[in-house]
Amino acid sequence: MIETQRLLMRPWRDDDVVPFQAICSDPAVMATLGPPLDSEQTAALIERMRGIDAAHGHCFWALERRDDARLIGWCGAIRGSVGPVADKPEIGWRLASDCWGRGYATEAAKAAVAWVFDNLADEAVWAITWRGNVRSRAVMERLGMQHAETCDFDHPRLTEGDPLRPHVAYSLDRASWGHA
């Protein structure tokens, strides 16, 4: 578990499916990520994270608010699987829309970056998002990440013509982390 002042990143539990599905079915949340997920798809996504955690010791963990134990999303690090982040530590987050604008994503992402640099030997951490996702890009920039323009790519899991296909890549090297 990773604790910050207001948040807890923890392993996934069976009872996380319902609250996480509420997040993953919110059109505002999914507007920059893809189609809303149903309960079965959400459960499969959580199982995928559990498998990644078991194999690598980290994943996009359940993100819980400490003051009320509410699951408000996910945050953490995985081994990237596409484009410029393939096999690199990729940080990511997804938050309930009523939790936006409160600094939770930045707080959790800072802890995830610190975890990567404290626990993995990689020299940089990466993040990707749809080109138009200004909220996530702002979090990346608050972390001190730099837009790696030469690494921007069309997401291979999205079909030609999908408006969410153009992705940007950001990175932060270990040496710069202490200065962010």
TrEMBL record:
Residues 7-175 form the N-acetyltransferase domain. Pfam families: Acetyltransf_3 (PF13302). SUPFAM superfamilies: Acyl-CoA N-acyltransferases (Nat). InterPro entries: Acyl_CoA_acyltransferase, GNAT_dom, N-acetyltransferase. This is GNAT family N-acetyltransferase.
